[in-house]
Q: What sequence folds into this?
């Protein structure tokens, strides 16, 4: 199998990321989930695109590629929606957003490597935790994060009124990251940190 390569995303990837979001929303709807749907209080694609665009401008978004094809995406920063994590929890963590894997690459552990990359970024920034919020009603997604080594911290209280209030966390030093491989810097974004070109069977 081809290696999974992680690179920093550019604004030119916005269309790909929106396509992944629409693809995954349709897949979830077919499985009976309201995640990311307007009916389920998910962000309309136009608002999602604006949020991703800001993250792209800030250098917070990454693309996983297999044989040069975009296979998934993740955004990692230090921010969360109000009422989810406390200020002290955010002060020693990076936060995962918008992790989506292209269905064509399902079963190739793309999500595993994207989450491990969040661990790399946390350690580079001297932060102890990787934290994320998951769609409250999507228990299959909760099970996925548990299989990836995350623990449920809690369901956020009533001050957090959004549909994604299941809070998961994992220590940044809990990944066995091996030796990272430097890949070329993202186009137009200067020098990228050690990202990791990893084999799917790792």
A:
């Amino acid at each position: 199998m081809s290696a999974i390569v992680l690179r920093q995303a550019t604004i030119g990837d916005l269309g790909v990321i929106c396509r992944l979001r629409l693809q995954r929303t349709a897949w979830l709807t077919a499985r009976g989930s309201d995640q990311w749907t307007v009916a389920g209080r998910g962000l309309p694609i136009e608002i999602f695109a604006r949020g991703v665009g800001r993250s792209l401008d800030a250098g917070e978004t990454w693309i996983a590629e297999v044989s040069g094809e975009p296979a998934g995406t993740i955004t990692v920063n230090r921010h969360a929606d109000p009422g989810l994590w406390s200020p002290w929890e955010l002060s020693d963590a990076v936060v995962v957003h918008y992790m989506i894997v292209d269905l064509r690459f399902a079963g190739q552990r793309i999500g595993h490597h994207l989450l491990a990359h969040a661990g790399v970024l946390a350690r580079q920034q001297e932060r102890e935790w990787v934290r994320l919020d998951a769609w409250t009603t999507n228990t299959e997604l909760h099970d996925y994060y548990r299989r990836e080594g995350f623990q449920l911290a809690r369901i956020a209280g009533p001050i957090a009124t959004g549909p994604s209030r299941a809070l998961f966390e994992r220590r940044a030093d809990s990944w066995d990251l091996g030796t990272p491989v430097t890949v070329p810097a993202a186009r137009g974004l200067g020098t990228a940190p050690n990202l990791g070109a990893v084999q799917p069977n790792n």
In short: The longest helix spans residues 14-30. Residues 179-202 have pLDDT under 50 and may be disordered. Residues 15 and 49 are 8 Å apart (CA to CA).
